[in-house]
Amino acid sequence: MKYFNPEAAKEFIYLCARAGAVPDNKIPSERMSYVEPAPITDKENPFEAMMSRFHEAAMKLGLDEETYNVLKSPTKQVIVSLPITMDDGSKRVFEGYRVIHSNILGPSKGGIRYDPHVNLDEVKALAAWMTWKCAVVDIPYGGAKGGIACNPREMSAGEIERLTRAYTSAMIDIFGPDRDIPAPDMGTGPREMAWLMDEYSKTQGMTVNAVVTGKPLVLGGSLGRTEATGRGVMVTALTAMEKMKINPYKATCAVQGFGNVGSWAARLLAERGLIVQAISDISAAYYNEKGIDIEAAVQHAQKNKGSLQGFTGAEKINRDDILTLPVDVLVPAATEDVITASNAKQIKARLIVEGANGPTSSKADSIINEKGIMVVPDILANAGGVTVSYFEWVQNRLGYKWDAERVNRRSDRIMKEAFNNVYQTAQKYNVSMRIAAYMVAIDKVAKTYQYRGGY
Ligand code: GLU
After folding, report:
1. Among 133, 179, 340, 432, which is 20 to 30 Å from 396 by CA?
2. pTM for this structure?
């Protein structure tokens, strides 16, 4: 087969070994001799987790070697050092990243993460996931991601503002409304996007609001953007439940993560009749068999610096137990690598809808598939955010504002169509929803690349 050159096969088997996955049986056995056993740990490198799914989907598609190599390699990786004066007068140097995974479908798109654990491999994986995400929902963007290794919870607003402006200035040749368009991610929101837009605009001598999405409404943000990711989780969850003949009014649900995505997903699922029995965040987890009053939980978190700690509307449970509760629907909406080979066997939900990026390790995939659990994978389930980001960018470029009804109607339609497309692909090729989503995405980017060509 054209694809199997020794290097690629060697790399894949290495990744499989690291991930603990069984290499595809189509790999000729003589290639196996290239492999040196790698240490296998439960924690998974997110880029390797992405690559093992990418590889499996590329194999199913019979992707040629040249396109495979182009699609797997990030186009550009930028690392900057950002010296910032802290409030106490000291100087600290922060490391900032921006990875453009692909600009084949159009300008690259993806959020900026402020978190102490940000590192290049994570940003690379998140950038690639953006490429597949935009392709799955068929919007004309490539994928990118940025991040700064910092702890915004321990920084003042002034320090975060200086850091955001310094990062924007360092990335001035990368960002641009037709080049690379950032957005919020973990640890950032409309406030940071406003500073970014302002800093970028200053260098251009004019207001350029289409350079970033997820802005405050008054600066050209879109109605519906704040809740868009959670809304997409709700829409894909309900579409999956319809296929599985689960009645939402009788279904129970647990949501891990109570930031923007988790809290909106919980709220919107509860509004559609689901009994949200459990919620959690980094501080605590809460359970109420009869269903948690999500509005009350949101109010509590708002008054408590975003934290659920001390919520009185439910019983406190162990944080890790949220993933293995006997509920119908599980929404991991916190961070990467939380459903692993160690806890996947204990999962009792019939449906998992991935609000977070990369919440399931590739080792856990096969366990979940064997259990017959339906998974709406991250690159589909949480694509509502970037879909409405796209609408925001379109509105900025039109110099026009859509009403909320138009935003929601269009994004719901895109999410349902994307779900059905992935579902049909899964049936046609007899693969999981995750591999089907990658297949849909890779096929689209590959076809576009073949038209555009390389050097
Ligand atoms: N950070 C979000 C994501 O992971 C949104 C990206 C965007 O809107 O560009 O999908």
Report:
1. 133
2. 0.90
